[in-house]
Amino acid sequence: MSAGKNTASHGSGRARPVPALIPMAVSVRHVHLTQRTVEQLFGPGYLLRIRALLSQPGQYAAEETVALVGPRGRLNHVRIVGPPRSEDQVELSRTDEIELGIDAPLRESGDLAGTPGIVVEGPCGRVTLPHGVICALRHIHMSPADADVLGLKNGDKVAAVVTTGDRKMVFGDVVVRVSPAFRIELHLDSDEGNAAGAHSGTEVMLTEIR
């Protein structure tokens, strides 16, 4: 992250976010599963295998993939992201939703009340999830130290500007998520990344919403 010390302030007295260059990651469709669901899909006692570590500490792309089956279509080879969670969650782009025939709401990760369900298939079985499908709100992970430098707090909304390439673009209403477990990074879904001609590793300019 490149940023200066925050000295500007809003009329309300709260500090303005400092413009800063931060890395971006494009998040393709994926699923988070409970250990119970993993075992239903892959067999009793099955443990996910690490394919690649992700930028957020403790997170990894698993070797295992599943198929998602909706009312209108099917998506194969959808990556599982580990480690297992306390609730099943499926994250899709709008394009994925159209292909599957599902209308999933824009939500923050973990906000699953009232979301649609889906059928998940693995090599040893299938599970019908009663809910858990979302289109993830664009968001920025950051540590408390980063948030302090930038003059931000958990739940704030900022803008991120893609300044490189041939499709310069401003993404507004980016939700700030703060945790000691996070490393600073903007997360967009594949539709958003494609619209800006951006890819994981691209740096974006973080600024206030105007």
Could you explain the architecture of this structure?
- The protein is built from four helices and 15 strands.
- The radius of gyration is 18 Å and the shape is globular.
- Helices cover 13% and strands 40% of the residues.
- The strands form two sheets. Strands 2, 3, 4, 5, 6, 7, 8, 9 and 10 form a nine-stranded mixed beta sheet that branches. A six-stranded mixed β-barrel has the order 1-14-11-13-12-15.
- The longest helix is centred in the first third of the chain and has 8 residues, at 35-42.
- The chain has two domains: 20-25 and 138-207, Barwin-like endoglucanases (Beta Barrel); 34-136, no CATH class.
- With 210 residues, it is mainly beta.
Concise structural overview:
The protein contains four helices and 15 strands. The chain has 210 residues and is mainly β. A hairpin with a 6-residue loop joins strand 12 and strand 13 (169-178).
Secondary-structure blueprint of this entry?
Elements: E1 20-27, E2 30-32, H1 35-42, E3 50-53, E4 60-69, E5 74-82, E6 89-91, H2 94-100, E7 106-107, E8 118-122, E9 125-129, E10 133-136, E11 139-142, H3 144-150, E12 157-162, E13 169-178, E14 185-189, H4 190-195, E15 203-207
Parallel strand pairs: 1-14, 2-5, 6-10, 7-10, 11-13
Antiparallel strand pairs: 1-15, 2-6, 3-4, 4-5, 4-8, 8-9, 11-14, 12-13, 12-15
Key features of this structure:
210 residues; mainly beta; Barwin-like endoglucanases; 2 domains; nine-stranded mixed beta sheet; six-stranded mixed barrel; 4 helices; 13% helix; globular; disordered N terminus
